[in-house]
Design a protein that fits this description.
Length: 86
């Protein structure tokens, strides 16, 4: 199975669903591992839970759609801050 860890990085992304318009942000812990035969294995964790890669299998938290735009972190909060408050 998996063997030595070659590093852990932290990344954050902003997401926007093209189906329902929902936007959200998520931080990830990304672990770079290797299988016993030396092949790379990249494992993603969000909120302490192992999750599929958001880059290859994005899923909307609101409607579970899979047409999701991925952007650098901060884009959703920046857009929300620009909205008029009632």
């Amino acid at each position: 199975m998996k063997h030595a860890s070659s590093g852990t990085v932290h990344e954050a992304y902003s997401f926007a669903c093209m189906k329902c318009g929902f936007g959200w942000e998520q931080d990830y812990e990304i672990r770079h591992l290797e299988y016993a035969d030396g092949r790379p294995l990249i494992v993603y964790y969000a909120d302490g839970e192992r999750v599929p890669s958001p880059l290859t299998h994005p899923t909307c938290r609101n409607c579970e759609g899979h047409v999701v735009r991925i952007m650098r972190s901060g884009r959703v909060s920046l857009a929300e801050a620009a909205l008029p408050h009632h």
